Amino acid sequence: MRDFSNDHSALALNTATLGHNLEGHGAGWSPEQIIDACAARSMAGIVFWRREIGDRAIEIGERVRAAGMEVVGLCRTPYLTGSEAPETLDEARASVDMATALGAEVLTIVTGGTEPGTKGVLDSQKVLAERVARLAEYAGDRGVKLALEPLNPMFGGNRTCLFTVRDALNVCRAIDAPNVGIAVDIYHVWWDTGLHNSLAEAGGRILGYHLCDWLENTRDMLLDRGMMGDGVVDLKAIRRDVEAAGYAGACEVEIFSARDWWQRDPNEVLDTMVERFRTVC
Amino acid sequence: MRDFSNDHSALALNTATLGHNLEGHGAGWSPEQIIDACAARSMAGIVFWRREIGDRAIEIGERVRAAGMEVVGLCRTPYLTGSEAPETLDEARASVDMATALGAEVLTIVTGGTEPGTKGVLDSQKVLAERVARLAEYAGDRGVKLALEPLNPMFGGNRTCLFTVRDALNVCRAIDAPNVGIAVDIYHVWWDTGLHNSLAEAGGRILGYHLCDWLENTRDMLLDRGMMGDGVVDLKAIRRDVEAAGYAGACEVEIFSARDWWQRDPNEVLDTMVERFRTVC
User: Which residue of A34, A85, A141, A185 has the lowest C-beta tally within 10 Å?
Assistant: First the structure.
């Protein structure tokens, strides 16, 4: 297990931590301001959301690398299942194109919910596997990896049909493409007593590791994540298992927090991230 | 698997479906009104919440049986873990006493959250097992069974340290008492692709089966459950597994629904329950 106590060179910012994933939230910093602030703190890189990038993907990617960092990933494809999924894969392919232009190695997939006309989980997972397999061909030709992210079961119905790392691995195996893996976000999987065993079977499939904390009293399903150390997650135990599965990449901080961290000066948020990364992650 | 298409003699009402679990909600019917309405519809029985019973447990229990039904269960002990758990088991023992006085065979346990000073799940489950084992002795002497209810992982932190049927079975095995089992509530477990296998290992441990539905668009963590048939749960598949594990008891409808069903005439709610039970459960 890597020792981060005096080293945050693996730390990355997901810009959702500054509220940049949602219209009308957050500090409103430009991508350039974010890049400069992360570079000044010697971070590994940044994960952007599509809405920040617009048509400036090449320019922003180059700027990140010129500052000595990497574009660690891009959030995210549109939903691929459920009643809100677009009818075609066109928008999903466009998000692959954006990842390519940014030079982001990994594109995250939040799957979408239950397929219309079906009940339960397995039918939706089958549809998902078929659609991701098609997208993976397109992405593979462009050097982009796809990370299936299981979500906390509270997001069943309209946001996800993958609820555990085991679910995501099962779909990966069904697809069996070299550029399809999983993202492990502690917010979504911390509660799973099967996680240790699932991660042990993940070898090589982990494409992203997302940090935040689960607050003891979560007040909002979507926008009340905690800063690392402020909640009940055993962060080091999970990182140990993630690294034992072979993951040696960036640790990306992704905190949706409309009432707390998004209200603060982004410089304070970034400084706190660095300090907590070294002490509790 | 039992055929309910022309038979609802296994249907029970959990009075939370009428808003009776929370102060300031629901129809405000007296226990007597509820008993008469359920008996008029030839239901199997009723599950009450402690706040409705007060000091009238014996009287209410007798009234239920005089109407030809059973008191199927009582909700619930106070939390046994987490920062909101009382310091002693006194209140938990008092809830056992109330179940005895009511003539309710089963007392449900919602465990409470993460033990103060711990991280993750396993330490809290150990504390839980120790406390439930002590309570089980007291309950066993009084003929009361304790049903550990796993909750949807969105309730981690402050409400539960059991997230799956497998978690609950693991704690049951650690306690190894003849009067400790589990409650299976489809709202909490519907998403679990391991459920089929977990239930296959539950043989004889299932003490309650709770019905509602998971709405595609859930607007509130606690109070937005759906009527059976209105959501995405594969109700018949889960009941098949529950019955294959040996469960032949009542199917209890428990719908927390502040914005919809709690706003309606209780007679409409009860009639809809009966119709949906026969057609989609």
Answer: A141
